[in-house]
What does this fold into?
Amino acid sequence: MTSQTERMEFSKRLQKALSDAKFSPTSPTLLAREFNLHFKGPPVTVQAARRWLLGESIPTQEKLRALAEWLYVPTDWLRFGVLDDKATTAEGGLGSVFEPKAIAILKRLDVYNKSLAEAFIFMLDEQQKKSNRPVNTVVT
It folds into this structure.
């Protein structure tokens, strides 16, 4: 059994993930529709999505994994609000959530686009080496 606080914190993280992914963080209809497009199991109802958004319930682990994959966020962060050490940046922020997003996107690309992405990453790496900037430097 989860506490009201846990459910509300989950709701806030879900809304943030939806917003970051350019989806409405307040529309249970949109959430249910988009989730069902990405979930292989039985569809969720608009009422279930509404309960997630309002902090009245937390989805099952299977649905949490599907939500996290769809929204490109770590499952542990979505459920518990924690990131493991590998998922944090040198500054300790959420910026490295990009890494799982990038990997998930790369996995979906066709062979041609994967080769383009790989060439671009290698080019950036070479540019980084030539610039003599420290690896974790933020350029503004």
About this structure: Residues 90 and 136 are 7 Å apart (CA to CA).
